[in-house]
Amino acid sequence: MYKKPSAARGVQQTYEQLLKANLREQVPAWLRAMRKVPPTDSLVRDPSYFSTKGKLAFEGSSKDSVDAENESGATRIKRALPKGCVSIRHSKRHLRTRSTRPPKIEFPEDRLRRVFYKNHPFELSRPRIVMEPTGQTNQDWSQLTRGSSQVTGEDVIRHQYYLMQSKGMSEHDAYAQVTSEFYKIRAREEIEAKMAQQEARAYGARMLEKPFSATLLSLEKREIRGSAKAFELRKEEQRLRTATSEKMFAAAGETA
């Protein structure tokens, strides 16, 4: 593949030629810096400027290529190969060099994070507090709970990694211990939220509801009432039919 030269290197060479031809008198500061630290080549791989179609040895002559393009797949003539030989298809795409890509960076916590969020997908939709109360990046992960701050999935992952590194526990044992503590914390939070809601209602507080949710609840209650009335009507009709049939059977027995 053709690689386009660096544009900055061309500027340096052009100015060096101007100095040699006495077309410039002073050497600028940027030229001294470029002499000490020359620019690198461009990392962008441009397409080739030269077409090699039909010029390589394994591509065949131009006449063969034209005949092959004119023929359909059904009437294409197969070349007679000696016994034991296999035809190999050459293509330019297999000859191209791969583009430069940055290496994949993966931390030890990434595998733990994938396992945890695969088993607990709803933790991703739970709101989080992004603000850092202390501003310290080096935190102690020896405990899952840190005072009054909320416990998130990232805390579980950090605490599990701490147990694996400091306590020498296996990944499975550390995961089982951390998740058991995590479930207890979540259960305590749900109980506290329910108790606070009951206490607020006991003091006369009224929970705010969204207009859309209130409308849906009213429609649902109306449908439930309508279904209950229809059920009662059907039950009454069934009772009348049963009573009528019993009277008819009784009258038939008396006449007989």
TrEMBL record:
Compartments where found: Mitochondrion
MF GO annotations: structural constituent of ribosome
GO CC term (a single one): mitochondrial small ribosomal subunit
Keywords from the named record: Mitochondrion, Ribonucleoprotein, Ribosomal protein
Record's keyword annotation contains Ribonucleoprotein: yes
Keyword Aminoacyl-tRNA synthetase: no
One Pfam family per UniProt: MRP-S25
Family listed: Belongs to the mitochondrion-specific ribosomal protein mS23 family.
Protein name: Small ribosomal subunit protein mS23
Gene that this sequence comes from: RSM25
